[in-house]
Write a structure and sequence with these properties.
The protein is of the alpha/beta class and 430 residues long. The protein has 13 helices and 15 strands.
Length: 430
C-alpha cells in the first residue's frame, strides 16, 4: 500500500482495530456473544444478586458467571474483572504480548460505596461528628480509620490503575464517565491520540459491573426501567409501541486501536477502521433530549463529517435503542432528519433488545458488534419486535438476523446528562 493509503480524507492516520474482547449477559468472548446475538437470544433474567421482592423492576442483565475473588464483590471489583477478561481476549486476538506500550482509556461507572459499606461507616461515626452533614461525617471517618480496601472500592481511578499495571500501558491511564456515551468516548480518545501522532497504538476499554439495589432503585425513580418482570427475555422492546423502559445490564468491551500503517507493518489482521467520531452536548434536561433533537442530529452529522462519508454511504446503523419511550422516539427523529427519505431502507437494530443496557460499557460493546456485522455480513436482529410503533417506521431487522454486505456502520450512544457520541466504522480499505 502507498503512504497515502494509510491516511484519511484529512491526511490523518487511519485508525485500525486489531483486537476485540467482549463480555455481556449473553456470555464471555466475541465468539459466544456473536453466536447468541445473531440467533436472537436474550440474556435478560430475574435478579438473583440481591433481594428484589417489592421492587417494581425485578429483572436485569447482570454478568454473574465471571469469578470476582473478593469476600464481598462490589462495582469496582466486578468492573475490573470484566475489563480484565475482555482485555486479555483483545490482546490475544491482536497478537500482542508483554507490555502494551500505549495509553489506556477506560470508561468506568461512577464509583460509590454500596449500602453495606455505608452502614458500616455509619456505625463508626462518633457523637461529636454528628453535625448533620453526612458527607463531612463520611470524610471524618475515613481520615481517622484508614481502610485501604474500602478506599480502593470507592476510588474512581482504581480500575484503570490496576489494568495499567497488569497490561503495561504507557503514561497515566485515563478514566472517564460520560454516562451511556462513555464506551464510545473511550474509543474516541484512543482514535484522537493516534491521529495526533501521540502514539501508534491505544487500548480503549469500557466496563460496567455496577448493578446493585441502589442503582436499580435510582433508575426506577426516574421511571426509566422496564417493569415487564413476568417474561424477562421479552422486556426490552426497542422501537415498539408497548416499550416501557430499558433493562439494566452489565458488560465490558476492549478494542486494540493502532494506526493502520503500524498494524500492516507488523502483519496484524485488521478487523475494521474507526473512521469517524462525533460528540456534542445537550443541556436541555438531565435525562431528556432536546425536543427538536438538534444535539443528537449534530452528533450524527459530526461523525459522518469526521469520517468523510455521506449518509448515503452508511449501510447499517447500530442504534442506541434503549426501549424507553422518549429515547427511541428522539433517536428516530434524529436519524430521519439526517438520512431523510432513505431512512426507511437503512437497516437499524438494537443490541439492547438482547443484552440489555450495559450503561458505561454500551458504546464499546456495540462498537464490537458493529465491527462483527461488517466482518461476517450478518445484521443482528432487534428481538421482541411484535407490536411496531407506527410513529417510528424503521427497518429494525425484526426478530431474525439478515445477511447483508455492509462496508460502513454508524453506532449511536446518547446518554443521560446530555452526553452524545457517535462512531462511524468502516471495513478495511482496499
Amino acid at each position: 500500500m502507498s503512504k497515502a493509503a494509510y491516511k484519511d480524507h484529512l491526511g490523518r492516520p487511519l485508525v485500525a482495530v486489531t483486537g476485540m474482547g467482549v463480555v455481556s449477559s449473553l456470555g464471555q468472548g466475541t465468539k459466544d456473544n456473536w453466536a447468541a446475538l445473531t440467533a436472537g437470544q436474550s440474556g435478560i433474567h430475574p435478579i438473583t444478586r440481591f433481594p428484589s421482592e417489592g421492587l417494581s423492576t425485578r429483572i436485569c442483565g447482570t454478568v454473574d458467571f465471571i469469578p470476582v475473588p473478593v469476600p464481598v464483590p462490589n462495582a469496582v471489583e466486578r468492573s475490573f474483572a470484566f475489563a480484565r477478561e475482555t482485555t486479555i481476549e483483545a490482546l490475544a486476538q491482536a497478537g500482542l504480548s508483554g507490555d502494551f506500550g500505549g495509553p489506556l482509556f477506560l470508561a468506568a461507572p461512577p464509583i460509590e460505596p454500596e449500602w453495606g459499606a455505608r452502614f458500616d461507616l455509619g456505625d463508626r461515626v462518633k457523637p461529636e461528628q454528628m453535625n448533620g452533614n453526612a458527607y463531612e461525617q463520611f470524610l471524618a471517618v475515613l481520615r481517622e480509620q484508614a481502610d485501604p480496601a474500602f478506599h480502593e472500592a470507592a476510588l474512581f481511578g482504581a480500575i484503570s490503575e490496576r489494568l495499567a499495571d497488569m497490561f503495561g500501558t504507557r503514561g497515566l491511564p485515563v478514566t472517564l464517565s460520560t454516562a451511556c456515551a462513555s464506551g464510545a468516548t473511550a474509543i474516541q480518545l484512543g482514535v484522537e491520540a493516534i491521529r495526533q501522532g501521540r502514539t501508534d497504538r491505544a487500548l480503549s476499554v469500557a466496563t460496567d459491573g455496577s448493578v446493585s439495589a441502589e442503582a436499580l432503585i435510582r433508575f426506577s425513580l426516574l421511571s426509566a426501567l422496564s417493569t415487564s418482570n413476568d417474561e424477562p427475555e421479552k422486556a426490552s422492546r426497542p422501537f415498539t409501541k408497548d416499550r416501557d423502559g430499558f433493562v439494566i445490564a452489565e458488560g465490558a468491551a476492549t478494542l486494540v486501536l493502532e494506526s493502520l500503517e503500524t498494524a500492516i507493518a507488523r502483519g496484524a489482521r485488521v478487523l475494521g477502521i474507526v473512521s469517524g467520531c462525533g460528540e456534542k452536548a445537550d443541556d436541555f434536561h438531565r435525562t431528556r433530549s432536546s425536543p427538536g433533537g438538534a444535539p443528537a442530529i449534530a452528533t450524527i452529522r459530526a461523525a459522518l463529517e469526521d469520517a468523510g462519508l455521506s449518509a448515503e454511504e452508511i449501510g447499517y446503523i447500530n442504534a442506541h435503542g434503549t426501549s424507553t419511550p422518549e429515547n427511541d422516539k428522539m433517536e428516530y427523529l434524529s436519524l430521519s432528519t439526517v438520512f431523510g427519505e432513505r431512512m426507511a431502507n437503512v437497516p437499524v437494530s438494537s443490541n439492547k433488545s438482547m443484552i440489555g443496557h450495559t450503561l458505561t460499557a454500551a458504546g464499546a460493546v456495540e462498537a464490537v458488534f458493529s465491527l462483527l456485522t461488517m466482518a461476517t455480513g450478518t445484521l443482528p436482529p432487534t428481538i421482541n419486535y411484535d407490536n411496531p410503533d407506527p410513529a417510528i417506521p424503521l427497518d429494525v431487522v425484526p426478530n431474525v438476523k439478515r445477511d447483508a454486505t455492509v462496508t460502513s456502520v454508524l453506532s449511536n450512544s446518547f446518554g443521560f446528562g446530555g452526553q452524545n457520541a457517535c462512531l462511524v466504522m468502516s471495513a478495511e480499505p482496499a
